[in-house]
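Homework help board

Subject: predicted structure for assignment chain

Our instructor gave us this sequence and asked us to write out the predicted structure in token form, then describe one feature. I got the tokens but I'm not sure how to describe them. Can anyone check?
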Amino acid sequence: MKYTIKTFRKDFPNDDRCLTYLFEARFPNAKGYHLEKGTRRFSGRKGTKHIYPMAGTIFEGSGTPLSSWFYAIYLFSVSKNGVSAKELQRHLGCAYNTAWRMAKQIRKLMESNGDRLTGVVEIDEAYIANRPVLGAIERGGNVKIKVANDMGGAGISAHAIRNISTDAKIMSDNNRAYAWLDRHYEREYVTHSKEYTRGKIHINTMESFWSHVKKSIKGTHNHVSPKHLQSYLDFFSFHHDNRASSVAPFLVLLTRACR
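My token output:
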């Protein structure tokens, strides 16, 4: 589903509209409340009860206009190659530290859910920002990416068991560490010194995903700290998983931000 900037500006023209949306999403059963002019709180009929919609969310304690937060979330939802803090700073006209903190909080909204992959699943490893990363991607489905401390058979098996259904069929290369997966899964593999595909046996989908991630990081961020690498990987996983969603990615993120 497409959600254009024209639609965004119509739905969220100002701070009050954003705050009202947040209030209605978080407190659907709160009746008789109104937004106090010039504040960020809603008051009851007698003015003795108050609700602060931003409390407990990524917006809490921020002096940045809520409309700027919503616009930042929109930017993250429509960018396939990432949004750097410098780019966000230019869009919002805010301090770099403010933009960096906002970007960090928005990426937290993009963390993967706990659903395990099924069907035919390709698994592969890569090095990004000088850190080993394990990836598993369901053909035609979602992807699970994790910065890894253990690239041996035990670490690969643990990653697979957490993220891949045991009735899935695994595709890998001939890395000996993947042999550990044979204890739990049906597996086929290609020997890259001889071939890259053998009919339906390949890991081209996973390798294509790695290529996109590496090019995007280099082009958008130039450098990513290993400390924060997982949150950047979550960004790319989110966009992959929501590429054909019936709900616009912006609305998915906004729903998560309202929890």
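Reply (TA_rk): Your tokens look well-formed. For the description, you could write something like this. The chain has nine helices and ten strands. That's the kind of observation they're looking for.
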